[in-house]
């Protein structure tokens, strides 16, 4: 393994180390105070300043810009929302189509804004092999899922089926039986995006304080160790890093996600693998295996999240050799041509999961608090959509976005946002879910019927699905 093996690949692409920003060392006032300088906080700041240039916006970041998931994720920009069906399932077909259209168009909108603002983040819209079936049992599951996407409101043009030959033309997976292609997916270099965005919002007049951890929040005031910001509107944009901050930590809990990056691959190897146009790719595993081709010709590959007892988030990025090796083996199993390729990087971080698996943008004017998150691993695009939505809500703009079913003003969110169970229940449930998914997959891999185990695992999965509802 390379000596950079425990380092986030994206940060190595930044060239010079991004300049640091002064910490908050005074008691100040702002029209809007934002806690967290990841995508959610920065996109909210960006749209607030675009719409209301005179607004005083201050961002407080506990560490450095992009310290959280935004600076270390897998780089997929997805035209879907995890948990979308829970928001729009009860709407009419026409309304569902509108919501899916907004979510799908969000990907193009991000590309447009980056081009307009001159933010170079390797944005590439190559679509995605969204879920490649690798075991025969997965074909029917994925075909049902595709039908579900269409019933939900995603168009045929955006999501369609690839048979085994069409799939093989796109990527040479081991056992590629077919899969879903999703046109509305792009990829980015997230560290370049979050740092470029921070510089852009500063040019618009936003103040960012780094090394300024918000310690308490009360009566329209955020307190840090050496200062405070008094503001009628405080946005909590801490997603999977809310750890010690405010009550939000019981609503959105951190889940660990780990990623590796190969060395740059030779042209000959790329010809063997395919992926012309740099589509993102994922197989149909419920345990999650996904990746894409980076701008410099590596494969960035993420797999297998996990939950830490006590909902601790992953502040450090380093991961162990075993964790890297396990992901390398999964990658080579999917793309056998990669046998012998060096893994140069491996790192991890935390994403946010809400109790009912619904991402949300919330504004409660009675206490002057707003938040967005719970993106469940699909937050790169969602944070743009939700940051934009929060800006509309804060400025009381009656827009299509502010009326979307994931936007909650005032008390309406109280029934929606549930608290997670206490430990050890959360941890036990996470272990049981992982066990049932792994068991199901092991059976599929063997391709043998398991008369007792298979229905038992299915019942277990159905049971988890109903608890989530
Ligand atoms: C390894 C990994 C891979 C992922 N891959 C993908 C992917 O490919 N596609 C996708 O769509 N999503 C992916 N995600 C999820 C996505 O990255 C996140 O959902 C998204 O970046 C969340 O952005 P955010 O701004 O809400 O939160 P973050 O980016 O996590 O930012 C929160 C910030 O708040 C700061 N903070 C916390 N507490 C305080 C405090 N008290 N005071 C001040 N600041 C504080 C933190 O330091 C942090 O910088 C991945 C996540 C991880 C961890």
Question: Can you tell me the CATH architecture of the largest domain?
Answer: 3-Layer(bba) Sandwich
Q: State the helical fraction.
A: 25-40%
Structural class: alpha/beta
- Please tell me the total number of domains: 3
**Biggest sheet strand line-up:** 6-7-5-15-16-17-14-18
Radius of gyration computed on alpha carbons: 22 Å
Note poorly predicted spans.
Answer: none
Distance between the termini: 44 Å
Whole-number mean pLDDT: 91
Q: How many strands in all?
A: 21
CATH superfamily of the largest domain: FAD/NAD(P)-binding domain
β-strand percent reads 15-25%
Main β-sheet: number of strands, strand sense, barrel status? Answer: 8 strands, mixed
How would the global form be characterised? globular
Provide the CATH top-level class of the largest domain.
Alpha Beta
Individual helix count: 12
Q: How would you portray this structure in words?
A:
This protein has an eight-stranded mixed sheet, with helices on both faces. The mean pLDDT is 91. It folds into three domains: 9-73 and 190-253 and 356-413, FAD/NAD(P)-binding domain (3-Layer(bba) Sandwich), CATH 3.50.50.60; 125-184 and 254-351, D-Amino Acid Oxidase, Chain A, domain 2; 425-468. Helix 4 crosses helix 10 (379-394) and helix 11 (425-446) crosses helix 12. Helix content is 34%, strand content 22%. By secondary structure, it is an alpha/beta fold. The structure holds flavin-adenine dinucleotide. The site of flavin-adenine dinucleotide (FAD) has 45 residues, from helix 2, strand 4, strand 14, strand 18 and helix 10. Flavin-adenine dinucleotide binds next to helix 2, strand 4, strand 14, strand 18 and helix 10.
């Amino acid at each position: 393994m390379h000596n950079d093996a425990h380092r986030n690949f994206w940060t190595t692409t930044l060239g010079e180390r991004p300049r640091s920003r002064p910490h908050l060392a005074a008691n100040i006032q702002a029209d809007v105070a934002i806690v967290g300088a990841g995508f959610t906080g920065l996109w909210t700041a960006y749209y607030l300043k675009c719409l209301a240039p005179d607004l005083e916006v201050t961002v407080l970041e506990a560490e450095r810009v992009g310290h959280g998931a935004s600076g270390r994720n897998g780089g997929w920009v997805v035209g879907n929302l995890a948990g979308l069906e829970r928001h729009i399932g009860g709407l009419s077909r026409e309304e569902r189509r509108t919501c899916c259209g907004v979510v799908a168009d969000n990907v193009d909108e991000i590309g447009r804004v980056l081009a307009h603002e001159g933010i170079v983040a390797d944005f590439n819209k190559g679509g995605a092999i969204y879920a490649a079936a690798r075991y025969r049992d997965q074909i029917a599951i994925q075909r049902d899922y595709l039908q579900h996407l269409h019933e939900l409101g995603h168009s045929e043009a955006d999501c369609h089926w690839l048979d085994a030959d069409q799939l093989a033309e796109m990527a040479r997976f081991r056992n590629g039986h077919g899969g879903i292609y999703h046109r509305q997916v792009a990829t980015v270099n997230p560290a370049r995006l979050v740092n470029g965005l921070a510089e852009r919002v500063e040019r618009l007049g936003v103040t960012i304080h780094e090394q300024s951890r918000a310690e308490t929040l009360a009566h329209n005031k955020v307190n840090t160790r050496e200062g405070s910001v008094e503001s009628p509107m405080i946005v909590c944009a801490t997603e999977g890093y809310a750890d010690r901050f405010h009550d939000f930590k019981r609503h959105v809990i951190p889940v660990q996600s780990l990623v590796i990056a190969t060395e740059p691959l030779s042209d000959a190897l790329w010809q063997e693998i395919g992926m012309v146009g740099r589509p993102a790719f994922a197989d149909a595993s419920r345990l999650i295996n996904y990746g894409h081709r980076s701008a410099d010709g590596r494969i960035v590959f993420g797999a297998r999240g996990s939950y830490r007892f006590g909902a601790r988030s992953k502040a450090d990025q380093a991961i162990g050799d075993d964790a890297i090796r396990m992901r390398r083996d999964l990658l080579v199993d999917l793309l056998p041509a990669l046998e012998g390729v060096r893994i140069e990087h491996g790192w991890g971080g935390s994403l946010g999961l809400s109790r009912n698996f619904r991402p949300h943008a919330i504004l409660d004017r009675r206490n002057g608090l707003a938040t967005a998150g719970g993106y469940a691993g699909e937050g790169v695009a969602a944070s743009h959509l939700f940051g934009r939505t929060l800006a509309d809500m804060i400025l009381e703009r009656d827009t299509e976005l502010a009326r979307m079913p994931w936007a909650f003003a005032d008390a309406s969110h109280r029934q929606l946002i549930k608290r997670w169970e206490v430990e050890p229940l959360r941890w036990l449930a996470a272990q049981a879910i992982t066990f049932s998914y792994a068991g199901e997959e092991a059976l599929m891999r063997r391709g043998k019927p398991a008369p007792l185990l298979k229905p038992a695992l299915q019942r277990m999965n159905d049971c988890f699905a109903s608890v989530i509802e």
